[in-house]
Amino acid sequence: MRRCLTVNGTRLIDDEGAPFAPGGIDDIPCTNVGTVEDGEAVPIHQKGDGFLHRLNAQYKPNKDMMFYATWSRGFRPGGLNRQPDEPPYDSDFLTNYELGWKTAWGPLIWNGAIYHQVWKQFQFSFLGANSLTVIHNGRDARINGIETDLSYVHGGLTLNAAAAYTDAKTKGNICEVSTDDEDCSETFVVTPSGTRLPITPKFKATATARYTWPMWAGKAHVQGSLAYRGSAAADLRQDIDGDGTNPNDFLGRVRASTLVDTFLGYDWANYTVELFATNLFDKRNDLVRFVACSICTQTRVTPGRPRTIGIRAGFRF
User: Fold this and answer.
1) Could you write out the DSSP letters of every residue in the chain?
2) Which residues contact 217 (CB under 8 A, 6 or more apart)?
3) How do the pLDDT tens digits run along the chain, 317 residues long?
4) Burial class of residue 217 (count of CB atoms within 10 Å of its CB; 0-12, 13-18, 19+)
5) What is the largest CA-CA distance in the chain?
6) pTM (2 decimals)?
7) What is the pLDDT of residues 166-213, one digit of tens each?
8) Which residues pair with 168 in a beta bridge?
9) CA triplet 166, 164, 254: central angle to 5 degrees?
10) How far apart are CA 174 and CA 104, in angstroms?
11) Are 140 and 120 in contact (CB under 8 A)?
12) Which is it for strands 271-278 and 157-171: parallel, antiparallel or unpaired?
């Protein structure tokens, strides 16, 4: 309540003893996210608009081969920050240009896509004053990538492999105040142009092998899978105070990891039973790295699931 607006247009913390500005929203004691006009509180409103589209063209030279091109666009609406002194944030827009293929070569299936994405005024969040989450708009980002997958099926053997390479970088300096010009002449550069986007690794890959064979009145199977994920930065920001304090120095990087899962099962009639061991080698992989408050430097890590061994059964009806 000490952040609430008074009739003088200031906050109670700076205007002790002044009455709260009337108005605002019904049935609340005071207004802290808003402005004061003629002695009355006026809540802040944010308005925006956007449109979605998807245009797709396909070429199919034969029944086992298809090529396509896609141009699509999406957006997320803007909104208000809970932090009283932070301005609203605008919508961000993602435009995707993609070329891809889907092919079959007998028992072998090969699919893939190459894409270029333009992310306008992308939204990103961080812990601000009083540890309230703040959402700002960055400049732009460009994302180039390629992804592909292979499948092979022969008799009871099934092999699958997939990989993706992503090159995602900011385009334009991000300033301490989102309304500053690209040179950050009024504040300072929080994230310089060309910084890689956080969380998303450059390279990811998976591989799975499964073999199924007849046994007694049903079918047995054995399966193994491997999933690799490269490392990535934990935070987009490179300087949070204007003095070179980089949160990634104490957060560290989201570490690369390789996970292995194994399965052994049996199906018969309407029943299934399977023994499994996920994260077989008990790898302590990172899901996310963060701090608990805006001025904290002690890093918290959310790990993935540890090695898990179990058995599951099912009934189909």
Assistant:
1) -TTSBBTTSSBGGGSTTPPBP-BSSTT-S--SSEEEETTEEEE---------EEEEEEEEEETTEEEEEEEEEEEE--B--SSTTSPPB--EEEEEEEEEEEEEETTEEEEEEEEEEEEET-EEEEE-GGG-EEEEE-SEEEEEEEEEEEEEEETTEEEEEEEEEEEEEEES-EESSTTS-TT-SSS-EEE-TTPBPSS--SEEEEEEEEEEEEETTEEEEEEEEEEEE--EES-S-S-SSSS---HHHHH-EE--EEEEEEEEEEEETTEEEEEEEESTT----EEEEE-SSTT----EEEE----EEEEEEEE--
2) 268, 269
3) 888 999 999 999 999 889 999 987 788 888 888 889 998 999 888 888 888 999 999 999 999 999 999 999 999 999 999 888 888 999 999 999 999 999 999 999 999 999 999 999 999 999 998 889 999 999 999 999 999 999 999 999 999 999 999 999 999 999 998 889 989 999 999 999 999 999 999 999 999 999 999 999 999 999 999 999 999 999 999 999 999 999 999 999 999 999 999 999 999 999 999 999 999 999 999 999 999 999 999 999 999 999 999 999 999 99
4) exposed
5) 85
6) 0.88
7) 999 999 999 998 889 989 999 999 999 999 999 999 999 999 999 999
8) 143
9) 65
10) 45
11) yes
12) unpaired
CA end-to-end span of the chain: 58
Residue 4: both structure tokens together: 């609430």
